Automatic annotation (TrEMBL):
UniProt keyword ATP-binding present: no
Family affiliation: Belongs to the class-IV pyridoxal-phosphate-dependent aminotransferase family.
Pfam families: Aminotran_4
Name of the protein described by the UniProt record: aminodeoxychorismate lyase
SUBUNIT field: Homodimer.
GO MF, one example: transaminase activity
InterPro entries: Aminodeoxychorismate_lyase_IV, Aminotrans_IV, Aminotrans_IV_CS, Aminotransferase-like, BCAT-like_C, BCAT-like_N, Class-IV_PLP-Dep_Aminotrnsfr
Keywords, in A-Z order: Aminotransferase, Folate biosynthesis, Lyase, Pyridoxal phosphate, Transferase
EC number: 4.1.3.38
Catalysed reaction, written as an equation: 4-amino-4-deoxychorismate = 4-aminobenzoate + pyruvate + H(+)
SUPFAM superfamilies noted in UniProt: D-aminoacid aminotransferase-like PLP-dependent enzymes
Amino acid sequence: MRIWVNGGLRDADDARLSVLDHGLTVGDGIFETVRTSEGRPFALTRHLDRLTRSARGLGLPDPDHDEVRHAVAAVIDANPVALGRLRITCTGGLSPLGSDRGDNGTSLVVALDGVSRRPDSTAAITVPWTRNERGALAGLKTTSYAENVVALARARERGASEALFPNTADRLCEGTGSNVFVVLGGRIHTPPVASGCLAGITRALAVEWTGAEETDLPMDVLAEADEVFLTSTLRDIQAVHRVDDRELTPGIGPVTAKAMRIFAERAGDDLDP
Ligand code: PLP
């Protein structure tokens, strides 16, 4: 694997950041995960815009979009894969051991690995830990993802692939790496960004293309919903057939199936000419 690190491509074994990088010592960094299909990144402009929003939220300098695009093209070129997970990471850079950021500039890392298509349907659990919709990091895609690692491990222990968080007001928020949608009486709903969820790029497209409504939802909605589905860069739209111990429609519910069809058709359009 060839990885872009601070200005050039390196072999994975030789790609280095300082062990005192603030991204490593305190999780001071931001990232984007972009899907590539046959060497084409999906919705790269939207990802770069969100990277900039995350940088501003964290007080990192604005990433140089031309530099990132150049790095993305180089990494895609050097790592041919059919379906890829491209990760763009910007970190606080080399700094003293402490909470203050250093003044040695930030780091840019771009890496790509091949992935398989996710199954069309999966199981999810709910977790008691909360997303903090009023926290400084709410809605930012930072490298401080350890809470998601813990929640995902809990999901795996219970035979699921995603864990759904409430926010501090016990409203439905999002998954560790996905946004959540519920179907009630034929209508599709998803929590608003004010719930503390990430403004997912797939979520925004699903809302635009299916007419889903942004609705403040109690956690209990998961016990009543006719259908539940997840959205994310690598899942696109993925049906949920079980939430905790509750089995939902066997197979994929009709509203979710329609949303999947619409998404598959529209996502083929070149969003990023
Ligand atoms: N929520 C969180 C916490 C995420 O990490 C992600 C994906 O990376 C999403 C939601 C879905 O966002 P997107 O559709 O942009 O991948």
